[in-house]
Design a protein that fits this description.
The protein contains 12 helices and 15 strands. It is an alpha+beta fold. The strands form 4 sheets. It has a 5-stranded antiparallel beta sheet with strand order 7-8-11-9-10, sandwiched between helices. The chain has a 4-stranded mixed beta sheet with strand order 1-4-6-5, covered by helices on one side. A hairpin with a 6-residue loop joins strand 14 (about 215-225) and strand 15. Helix 10 packs antiparallel against helix 11 (about 245-260).
Length: about 300
């Protein structure tokens, strides 16, 4: 089940990263074994390993779940299922993902970090680590994603509940994420503002809309990097539902978002600057959404 080894330091180009407390590397054969190891040790799950290096903690054991059957992308009648250990590169290069809602997921993932980091980083790690600047979380909240996790039993919950209940901070193993299929006239978009192409977001946002008989029947707008983790801008979505995607409707959604989305100062930007980015981002989202709706019509 496991292999004990000395992991005092990992040597990287340009220096070393101290992992002085890690003494065991565990490679479980089953999901149940992985969870047992997680509960019995001061342990940490590892797949891509980026955050293990960048943000070492008090863990004395690492549990490698990459040998478990948690990778892959499948399409079904209810949508797309993505295994937790699927890398960001595998997701954005998937033909299934490229065909989903006009390629919004692939387009968004191209803006996440650098190609080398995307080759390592996993979709599950992006959701569980839950960095406040996460582009993946912002987009998946807008898409109404659901996640499955294992804590001795299998559970399935909306991604929004996964964070609202702080499940991501509990001892559990995320196994997959599900992106729902959408009937009829639907479109989504993602927008990110950062200092460089590889930098984290100063602010990001995403939107999903479904149109019926010329008016918005369903809408979700998520805003992240505020600098808090992304959340649904409920008032902005409510401003859209029941109305056509006219300039006046979009203005109402922008005003609702600016009034309700909580923004703060940090080293990257002021609250006032972020508030203006909220307006800019939502307008750009709906420019993309309208183009995609017209292209699919």
């Amino acid at each position: 089940m496991s292999a004990a080894c000395s992991l005092g330091k990992l040597f990287l180009k340009g220096g070393t990263v101290a992992l002085t407390k890690v003494t065991r590397f565990i490679r479980p054969r089953t999901l149940a074994e992985a969870f047992s190891a997680l509960t019995e040790n001061q342990a940490r799950i590892i797949a891509g390993g980026i955050d293990v290096i960048l943000f070492p903690n008090e863990a004395t054991a690492l549990i490698d779940i990459t040998s478990l059957p948690l990778s892959g992308i499948e399409q079904g009648s209810d949508g797309i299922t993505i295994g937790a250990t699927t890398t960001l590169t595998e997701v954005l290069e998937s033909s299934i993902v490229k065909d989903y809602l006009g390629g919004v997921v692939a387009d968004a993932l191209h803006t996440v970090a650098s190609p080398l980091q995307r080759n390592l980083g996993t979709i599950g790690g992006s959701l569980v680590i839950a960095h406040p600047w996460s582009d993946v979380i912002t987009l998946f909240l807008a898409l109404g994603a659901r996640v499955r996790y294992f804590d001795g039993e299998e559970h399935e919950v909306p991604l929004s509940d996964f964070y609202a209940r702080n499940v991501h901070r509990q001892k559990m193993i995320l196994t997959q994420v599900e992106l729902p299929a959408f009937p009829g006239e639907s479109a989504a978009a993602f927008w990110k503002f950062s200092r460089t192409a590889f930098d984290i977001a100063i602010l990001n946002c995403a939107a999903f809309v479904r149109i019926e008989e010329g008016v918005c029947a369903e809408a979700r707008i998520a805003v992240g990097g505020t600098p808090a983790r992304a959340a649904i801008a409920t008032a902005a979505g409510e401003a859209l539902v029941g109305n056509p995607l006219s300039p006046a409707t979009i203005d109402a959604a922008v005003a609702a978002a600016q009034g309700k989305v909580e923004v703060r100062d940090d080293m990257r930007a002021s609250a006032d600057y972020r508030r203006e980015l909220v307006a800019t981002g939502i307008r750009r989202l709906f420019s993309q959404v309208k183009e995609r709706l017209e292209g699919s019509g």
